[in-house]
Amino acid sequence: MTKKTNTKLSFIGLGYVGLTTSICFADKDFHVIGVDVDKSKLKKISSGKSGIFEPNLNELLCKVLKTKRFSISDNLSDSIKKSDVTFITVGTPANHDGSVGLQFIKSAATDIGHALKNKSSYHLVVVKSTIVPGTTENIIVPIITKISGKKYDEDFGICYNPEFLSEGSAINDMNNPDKIVLGSSNSKSKKIINNLYNIFYSTQKINIVNTTISNAELIKYANNAFLATKISYINTIANICNNIPNVNVDEIARAIGLDSRINSKFLSAGPGYGGSCFPKDVKALIQFSSSLDYSPKLLIAVDEVNQLQPTLIINIIKQKLSFIDNKTISILGLAFKSKTNDMRESVAIKIINELLKQNPTIKVHDPEAIDNAKQIFGDRVDYHNNIIEAIKNSDCCVILNDSIEYKSLKPTIFKKYMNKALVIDTKRIFNYSEFNEIVDYYCYGVGSY
Predict the structure, then answer these.
(1) What is the pLDDT of residues 355-374, one digit of tens each?
(2) Is 393 left (phi over 0), alpha (psi -120 to 50) or beta?
(3) Which of 193, 211, 229 is the last residue of a domain?
């Protein structure tokens, strides 16, 4: 049973991280105020709709709303007045040069400064937004200090607490993390934030890493860049496998993943990584390193490999079809991964946009991302909620993610409904021998058998 606490929390920014994290805290008996400037978003959330496709998130939202432990507001000043700890969970979108965009962070710090002017009690600000080392102490602290007139470490404290949530499993990641990283500059802030998480995880043993603020900021980038490196590495191996008979990248990955120094996570080859974190964070770390007069050649290569992956898939499509003009191509899987509707930096966008230059008919399907896809492609592609309709009369079907709906498909379905039963499987979700006997099956990362 979770320990009881009187500590009240506020969260600035109810995007993916802010909403998920705040709801999980409310579910552990914390009183939480979620703050956002988007009134339409707040109206939706107050009705029990998160606006985010994440397993069990809507159900948990409805639960905490009923218990009155979770409330929402567009009044940041009042929310800070009523809380003891404020989490900054606003977005940090990439600038054109790949560096971190700090406009929302600066705005949040400014608003917090104004709110703290009239607060006499000590207030802890916890930054969760992804920012490069030095940002918290060199930008956020000075803004709050100047505007509030308060003394840093005496009237208010700052901690940096990066998030490591994975879309599709965010609630489980929050409740059962590999680690909690806490960067602080003084004992009082450190004590408050550690006590907060000790209460949250009172029924389980958690690895809590206490470190400096700058270390914590860099840990977030180092963590994501390493995972991106694993993906680009196994994609490189898959590209080699494509050209070797009787070789399967999954067998390679399975074997090397048994090595405890490597492990099996993030060794699933595919068309490249996407989403809101890896592409942005790798580029930001490259840009930040360059500002220190250091060229991170490994990270540059990781990014270059990932940029190349969609092009390799497009070349396979062109090679198998001979020409694309007036052909009908089905794309199954639009989100950057399964179990989400997030299309940010999805390889599907790059592949579809490139194919459209050669005048094919593009038919698309995704279990969750159709509405988001419409915002991107408009009327340039045909949308289908039914898989059969999506592949009917198609000359080629490209599988871009491993949604469970696709894994159950049989080769006879493609043979029956497609004009030409050509299936390009970038995630190897089908049995090679079974499919290769019935359809023209190209399995990325598998050399010809």
Answers:
(1) 999 999 999 999 999 999 99
(2) left
(3) 211
pLDDT digits (tens, 9 = 90+) for 160-209: 999 999 999 999 999 999 999 999 989 999 999 999 999 999 999 999 99
Residues 6 or more apart in contact with residue 236 via CB below 8 angstroms: 305
Distance CA 449, CA 25 (A): 52
Name every residue whose Cβ is closer than 8 Å to that of residue 129 and which is 6 or more positions away in sequence. Answer: 13, 17, 88, 89, 90, 91, 92, 104, 105
Retrieve residue 134's tokens.
């030095």
Q: Which residue has the tokens 């038919």?
A: 363
The structure tokens 């490139």 sit at 354
**Tokens 């007036």 map to which residue?**
326
Q: Which residues pair with 440 in a beta bridge?
A: 422
Which of the residues 24, 159, 241, 277 is marked catalytic?
277
Q: Is residue 1 part of a domain?
A: no
- Paired with 12 in beta bridges are 35, 88
Mean pLDDT of the 125-149 span:
98
If asked whether residues 201 and 286 sit together in one domain, one would say no
| Per-residue model confidence as pLDDT tens digits over 323-347 | 999 999 999 999 999 999 999 999 9
| Residue 247 contacts residue 241 (beta carbons within 8 Å) | yes
| pLDDT score at 52 | 87
Is-catalytic flag, 277?
A: yes
d(CA 230, CA 52): 27
Same domain, 27 and 132: yes
| Confidence (pLDDT) at 90 | 97
The domain in which residue 321 lies consists of 244-443
Q: Total domain count for the chain?
A: 2
What is the band of 1 on the pLDDT scale with cuts at 50, 70, 90?
A: very low
